[in-house]
Design goal:
This protein is α+β, with helices and mostly antiparallel strands. The chain has 16 helices and 36 strands. A 9-stranded mixed beta sheet has the order 14-15-13-12-11-3-2-1-18. It has a 6-stranded antiparallel beta sheet with strand order 19-30-31-36-33-34. Belongs to the glycosyl hydrolase 27 family.
Length: about 575
């Protein structure tokens, strides 16, 4: 049993857990807002795909309540297709359980307590009795099955079929077959939310699920490549009018940009900014530029639906998992190394992403448990501020500790993103340099004596790691005011001096401030070799408004426990794919 295996661990951190729980309870008692901190919990998808049963779900719920609730893990989310018979597959047609109004109901074979029209009422009650909040996954729009059956639409105000313009409206009046969900074409299609009937259908769905005790909705196929601002807006308005708070999360976030996020952030509580994240090192790498861009856009902890909103880097694929698309439950452990898991957990918390554990908790091991409940990293996730990428780092080829001599480092240029109002965004121009060839050049007004940074129009590098088939000249647009606008993010390009072989591809860093004045600095080694990374304390004031510089810092590196005290540089030898996390008090 997990409780027995982790008993010693729980004793070691009981005091810290109690302090966090007291803070959590205080927040609950004074606020009914949604997501005032990044939501934290467990989601069934990474371990069960869509085939989870009531028994398996409730077993995990009990472990979340007993072992993780004290660490802020509040949500237990049933992911997609809880209404589909196991006789079908993820893109089957005709295997869903729906009521006469076209609304999804739990599959009674997997969810026996739902029989007799009870839906998730009993499951929701059991979740609430453990102290947790109950979450479900929904697909946007209307099911193809309901559309084909042409089910009537419920008017929740009258309890009768919805009528407008003297006629009864049905599923085929609101469904849009030409706009199916791209990755589940047989399952769901968009609806016309400009009609009263379309809004009535959505209202009937969310009022039903609210009556089951749902506290959290993960709404899928509605953001990123599948953006449907009409449905997002309508759902947000409906949830805002309910008597109970329900947090709204959007998924997935393929091709999501900060510009797109600004359209929805005040309507929701979390929104995915990537595709599905699985246990591959390449997937972790892809999150660094994305996390940087959304932090630079000041989207972390912005205004949201009845509370705040957070860019979501996706759940943690740790522990006992299944495979994407597999028609089976958990059968293997994560492929990520321990260093890679530390890196992912540290980046997610420094970027203040929602933390949703994806593994089957019935087989969680002590090492993984200690990682996801580490009090310092979770405090950063919940309470830190001024979170941003930190560019002032170096990769040291030779450090002579006794004499504090550092090998000379070669620098180059790196293309980054910033707000288009930032003075550093200005200075771009186009010039002819040979016959009809053209290049784009950047010259900083602060460095007139330096050679400009130039690239050929067809060789413009991307400032994001997101995969795209769009050609570079279509990504970037040179404006007459001297800014170079990125079409994916809506932000502007800027150029910085960076370490030639270290940054931005091989080493990265993030910085944030703590609620007690701490400075958090994370070093990430993305290379395949052990690397020493350093920074100077004079650069840390970037996250402390009003401070020009620090003259002394002391603290510790969290993962190793090593203490430091310095008035100059601080360093860490970081393993391949690993990270270091400094907790510093500076003056």
């Amino acid at each position: 049993m997990v409780g027995i295996e982790l008993a010693a661990t729980m004793k070691c951190i009981s005091v810290t857990s109690a302090c966090f729980l007291l803070c959590l309870c205080a927040i609950r008692s004074v606020s009914t807002q949604n997501a005032i901190m990044p939501p934290r919990g467990w989601n069934s998808y990474d371990s069960f795909n869509w085939i989870i049963s009531e028994e398996e779900y409730l077993q995990n719920v009990n472990i979340v309540s007993q072992q993780l609730l004290a660490h802020g893990y509040q949500y237990a989310v049933v992911d997609y297709l809880w209404y589909r018979s196991l006789k079908g597959d993820k893109n089957s047609l005709g295997f869903d359980v729906i009521d006469k109004w076209g609304r999804m109901l739990p599959d009674p074979e997997r969810w026996p307590s739902s029989r007799g029209g009870r839906g998730f009422t009993d499951v929701g009650n059991k979740v609430h009795r453990t102290g947790l909040k109950f979450g479900i996954h929904l697909m946007a729009g209307i099911s193809t099955q309901a559309f084909n059956n042409n089910t009537p639409i419920l008017d929740t105000q009258t309890g009768q079929p919805y009528m407008e313009s003297g006629r009864v409206w049905k599923a085929r009046d609101i469904g849009i077959p030409s706009r199916p969900c791209k990755w589940m074409s047989n399952g769901f299609m968009a609806i016309n939310t400009k009609t009263g009937a379309g809004k009535a259908f959505l209202r009937s769905i969310y009022e039903l699920y609210a009556s089951w005790g749902v506290d959290f909705v993960k709404l899928d196929c509605v953001f990123g490549d599948n953006l449907d601002l009409g449905e997002i807006t309508s759902v947000s308005e409906i949830l805002n009018g309910l008597n109970k708070p329900i947090a709204l999360s959007l998924s997935p976030g393929v091709s999501a940009t900060p510009q797109m996020a600004k359209m929805v952030s005040n309507l929701v509580n979390t929104y995915r900014v990537t595709g599905d994240d699985w246990d591959e090192w390449s997937a972790i790498l892809a999150h660094f530029n994305i996390a940087r861009d959304f932090a630079a856009s000041n989207l972390i902890g912005g205004k949201g639906l009845k509370g705040k909103s957070w860019p979501d880097l996706d759940m943690l694929p740790f522990g006992w998992l299944t495979d994407p698309g597999a028609h089976e439950g958990p059968y293997r452990f994560t492929r990520l190394t321990q260093d890679e898991q530390r890196t992912q957990m540290t980046l997610w918390c420094m970027a203040k992403s929602p933390i949703m554990y994806g593994g089957d908790l019935r087989k969680i091991d002590a090492w993984t448990y200690n990682l996801i409940t580490n009090p310092t990293i979770l405090d950063i996730n919940s309470f830190s501020s001024n979170n941003q990428e930190f560019p002032h780092i170096t990769r040291l080829n030779d450090v002579k500790t006794k004499r504090h001599n550092v090998t000379k480092v070669q620098f180059t240029y790196s293309l980054g993103l910033t707000e288009c109002t930032d003075p550093k965004a200005y200075g771009w121009s186009s010039e002819k340099y040979y016959q009809d060839l053209e290049r784009i050049c950047y010259k900083s007004p602060k460095h007139d004596q330096e050679e400009p940074f130039c690239v050929h129009k067809r060789e413009l590098p991307t400032a994001s790691s997101k995969q795209t088939s769009i050609q570079s000249e279509q990504i970037w647009k040179l404006k007459s005011n001297g800014t170079l606008v990125n079409g994916h993010s809506g932000m502007c390009a800027t150029v910085e001096h960076v370490l030639a072989e270290g940054y931005p591809n091989r080493i990265r860093s993030w910085i944030a401030t703590g609620r007690k004045g701490e400075t958090y600095v994370a070093f990430f080694n993305l290379s395949n070799e052990k690397t020493t990374i350093s920074a100077s304390i004079v650069d840390l004031a970037i996250v402390h408004p009003g401070r020009r510089k620090f003259i002394l810092c002391s603290g510790n590196e969290m993962w190793s426990g090593r203490t430091i005290r310095t008035n100059n540089m601080f360093s860490a030898e970081v393993p391949a794919h690993g990270c270091a996390l400094f907790v510093l008090q500076c003056s």
